[in-house]
Amino acid sequence: MSILIAILGLGFLILIHECGHFFASLAVGLRPRRFYVGLPPAILKRKRNNIEYGLGAIPVGGFVTIPGMHRPIPHDAERRLSRAVSEAPSLAGPFDRIRRGLGAPDPHEALPAVEEFENALHGLKISPDALASAEKGITELKDALGPDAYWKAATWRRLVAIFAGPGANIVLAIVLMSILFMTSAGKATSEISAVQNDSPAATMGLQQGDRFVTIGGRPVTSPSEIPDLISRSEGKPIAVTVTRDGKVVRLGPVAPERIDNAYRLGIILGAEPLGPIEAVKHSFEVTWLVTVEIGKSLARLTVGEGREDISSPIGITQVSSDAVERGTENYLWVLSLVSLSLALLNLLPLLPLDGGHILFALLEGARGRIVRREVYERVSVVGLAVVLLLFFIGITNDIGRLS
Question: Is 273 helix (H, G, I), strand (E, B) or coil?
Fold first, then answer.
C-alpha cells in the first residue's frame, strides 16, 4: 500500500508540473490543444473551447500539448502527408506547394496550400492509416502556423509558459514545508519526541519526553547545540543527563553511530510550531539550501564524483514508500523535497528539458530571430543522452541499494 501511495504521489507532482504549463499558457495567450490527467490511452475525453480534456487509463501524471513548439519545416509535411500523396497522386500539387511554403522565409505562405490539401483530402479513397497520418499532419501544421503558436510568441510569453511547470513544483514544495513548519516541524526544543528502535539512544535508555540537561559533560544551553554536542564525541561513548518526570536522570555512556558523516544517537527532537511569516521564511531558506546542495552534487559529477547521490524513480519511490510507513509528516517532507528536485532537474539547460527551452527562448530573444530547427534537434540529442545517462546511473545505484 505504501508503494502505491508513493507512486501516486510522484504522479501527483508530475500533474502539478503540467498544470503549471497549462494555466500559464492560457494566461499568456498560448492556448494548449490538449490537457490530460493520467497517461494515454484515453478512457474519457471531451473538447471544450478548442481544448481536448482527457482522462488517461494510466493514473499517473498527465501532459499538456502546446501548439507550434517549433517553426514548421518541409520535413514535417513529408513525415505526415507523404503516405497519403503516394496513395492519391492528385494531392501532389498542394503537397509540393506546402513544402515550398514551409521552406520560404515566411512559412505562413504554406497555410493556403495546407487548406487546399485538406479540402482535396475529403472524398478520396485512401487507407485508414494514411488518412489518420494526413489529418494529424494538417492539424499540426495549422497549429504551428496559427496565431498562438509557441515558436513565434514574444520571449516573455514563452518564458512564462515554460517556467511555470517547474515553478509550480517549487511553489508546492514551499507550501508543504510552510504547513509542516506551522504544525509539527518548527523551532526545535530540547525535549525528545521519539527514540528510534535499536539505536544508541534506545540502548542508553532515553525515552520520549526526556529533556536534555547535559551531553558528554557539557551543559545544553540551546536546542540547536544538541546535534553538535553529540557529533563532537567522534564515536566515543558519552553520557547524558536528562530531566524525566521532574527528576534528573543520568544515562550512559554509549557510543553514538556514524550516519551521513555525523555521529547520532537516534533521537528526534520535539518542535514548536512557527507563525506563518516565519514558516514561509524557513521554507525559502530550506529551498535555497537544497538547491545549493543539488547544484554541488551535479557539479561533482563533472569531475567523476558524487555518482552515488543520483537516484531514479525506483529509488525515489522506495524512499517515499519508507516515509509513508514512518507517518504523514515524514512523507510530506519527502514529497516536498522530491517536488523541488523535480523542478531543479527540469531547469537544467538541456533540451528537451524545460531549462533547455528557457535557454533557447532567451537566446532567440537576444538574437531577434529563431534558431534553425537542425540546431534544436542536434542539441536535443546531446541533452537526451545526458538525461538518459543520469537515469542509467540512478537505476544502477538503486539496484545496488535494493540488492
Answer: coil
